[in-house]
Structure formats: structure tokens, C-alpha cells
Amino acid sequence: MYNILICDDEKDIVNALKIYLQNPDYRLLEAYNGIEALDIIQKEDIHLVLLDIMMPQMDGITAMAKIRERFNMPIILLTAKSEDQDKILGLNIGADDYITKPFNPLEVAARVGSQLRRYTKLGSGAVSNSILTVGSIELDNDTKTVTVDGNTVSLTPKEFDILKLLMEQPGKVFAPREIYRKVWGEDSLSAGDNTVAVHIRHLREKIEITPNDPRYIKVIFGQGYKIEKGRN
After folding, report:
1. Beta partners for 138?
2. Residue that finishes a domain, picked among 120, 143, 171
3. What is residue 96's DSSP assignment?
4. Which residues of the chain are modeled with pLDDT < 70?
């Protein structure tokens, strides 16, 4: 049973999402602002959050920043088409995906299912080794932890997946659309390349000593991203 928190200040939207997500494996909880969402997350074992950006009392961006201080469950932002800057900000802070209003019911169900599969089965790819090491970065696929120079780094599920993909094949250059396809599980849309770039930038900020002069995750201009082999 997955506990899914739906947070939107419009009751009609919450009710619609509850209809779209009717599933015997889902327990759906409701909140109508960021404060209520944080209160529920403190009390319940939440596996995924659908979080509106524009809400009274505490908006979704502020709430997500507070959630990411302690929790790594997937967060899908609920956004309007006019909120492009908020989408980018949300991805920077730690959102895993976003859905634009008005919602397509099939898309909602598919994105929620995809995020839950990755959250509960992170690292179920072709590589069987539990621990991956590149330089001073160590990724433990069983415990879903990452350390850099012995210090634990808190990553979102998407950041973990991207890092794992790169570490599985050090030196290999992955095009943004290939990363999007492998990590998000779907073909890249027009925003796919930007979404990958935002996650890469956020990942660098967490694992690199100097993000603007990275020693691990490199950009190959016009081609994509790779992680350097054996850097120390």
C-alpha cells in the first residue's frame, strides 16, 4: 500500500486527482496548503507527494524546500502553464517531476506509477553490484545512500538515478535525451533536456567541491554528460 499525499488549495482539483488515482494499492491523503502537507508528512509514512505551487499560507515551493530538509520521497509539482520559472525553481530545490494543468488523467496515473516504481526499486538496472565507486564517490545501491569523501550526501530519487547511471559506465557520454529516457522512463519532450540540465546542476552542487569547476560530472559540449573515471 502506497501513501500518496495530494496537496492543492482547490478542493475540486484534489477530488479530481483522487478519481484519477483510484487504485486498491493507493491510500490517498489530502492537504490544502503547505502547512497542512508538512503536518501530514510528519505523522504519516508518505511515499509520494503531488504538490501545487500556488497555495495560501505556505506555497508549494516553500513547502518542498522544508520537505527536502528531511525526506526524499518523490515530489511531483502541480503547475499552471504560466509558472515556467516556478517549475525550474522547483526542480532546482528537489522536485522529481511536474504535471501541467489541466491534467490528462492517463498522464497523472502514469507519472505517479513511474515515480513510485523508481522510489521503491531504485537501482534495479542491469548492474548487480551493490556498491559503485568513482574516485571518492561511493553509491550503495542496497541502502540507497551516497557518500563523498566519507560524508553522506542527501539526493532526491531522480538525482540518485542519474548519478547511478553515470557511475555504472564511467567515461561514457550520455546525451540528455538518453538520460531522460533511462531515468524518467519516457521519451524526452521539449522540456526534457532542460529538466536533465537542472538535475545535473543540482547534483553537482551536492557532490562537487567546486560545482563550476567539477572534477567528476563533466559536460561534453553538444553531446551530453559523463562522469570522469577514477578521479580522486
Report:
1. 133, 147
2. 120
3. -
4. 81-83, 121-129, 188-192, 230-232
Q: Residue 160: name the closest of 196, 126, 125, 123 by CA.
A: 123
Count how many domains the chain has.
2
Tally Cβ neighbours within 10 Å of residue 32: 18
136/209 Cα distance (integer angstroms): 12
- DSSP string computed for 120-134: HSTT-SS---SEEEE
Are residues 112 and 146 located together in one domain of the fold? Answer: no
Q: Please tell me whether residues 70 and 156 are part of one structural domain.
A: no
Same domain, 17 and 74: yes
- pLDDT tens digit sequence for 92-107: 878 888 888 888 898 8
Residues 200, 192: Cα–Cα separation, whole Å: 12
DSSP 3-state of 152: strand
DSSP, residue by residue, 55-68: -SSS-HHHHHHHHT
Same-domain check for residues 10 and 96: yes
Query: Of 223, 115, 113, whose CA–CA distance to 179 is shortest?
Result: 223
- Rounded-to-10 torsion of CA 23, 24, 25, 29: 70
Among 101, 120, 139, the domain boundary falls at 120
**228 CB-near residues (< 8 Å, 6+ apart):** 134, 135, 170, 171, 215, 216, 217, 218
Tell me if the pTM is above 0.70.
Answer: no
Encode 106-141: b = buried (16+ Cβ within 10 Å), e = exposed. Answer: eebbebbbbbbebbeebbeeeeeeeebebbbbbbeb
